[in-house]
Amino acid sequence: MNSYAKRLTLIALLVLLVPMLILAVIGAFRTAGKDFSIKEKTIIEHSDSVMYVTVINNPADSVILRTPSRELSVKALKSETFRTLAEKMRRTVTDPSQDGVGIAAPQVGVNKRVIWVMRLDKEGEPLELYANPVILSRSEAVVDGEEGCLSIPGLRGSVSRSVSIEISYTSLETFQTVTETVEGYTARIFQHECDHLDGILFIDRIKSRSEASQELP
Ligand code: ZN
Fold first, then answer.
1. CA of 174 to the centre of ligand 1 (A)
2. Which of 28, 110, 137, 165 allows an S-S link to 105, with CB 3.0 to 4.6 Å?
3. pLDDT digits (tens, 9 = 90+) for 114-154
């Protein structure tokens, strides 16, 4: 091969490689933070099947509870780590010591958009898992109702919430985005759990405290 041919080959290689490299870098940026971090994987894999629940009065836990959570990539949703997290969160919320109607991943130390919601509006009131939930719209009509939170033990209070909401989430069967309208107390649970994913706690929205047994942080 003469030097001219060599140069042509080099240019051809560069023309092919440079765009591939740029695309790879863009791809890495787009999925950055949408997969489980090493710290999160450690928490998920090494915790007991009933996980430690972060509480607002613990300074380190409070940082996690106040940090907005990232959505998960489809790759992350298909991972064994996600299945383990989901199962351990389910065991945690249904544990007799907690007995909640919902739980969000920041409550077990993972800042990712994953929640379990008890579907009081469905027969048998099943607990259902939602990935990347987003509240698209809220009814203007609101209703007051009492709430508590696993992360704020010993405190309940009245919170005003929309009667009906439209949500979207990533289906765990098709991995497509689906939307749904939810009403009643189940809509309240979705609003409470989605707030957790944005670092918001029900005490931020509280109107009256029925049992002010602890100092608010
Ligand atoms: Zn809560």
1. 28
2. 110
3. 999 999 999 999 999 999 999 999 999 999 999 999 999 99
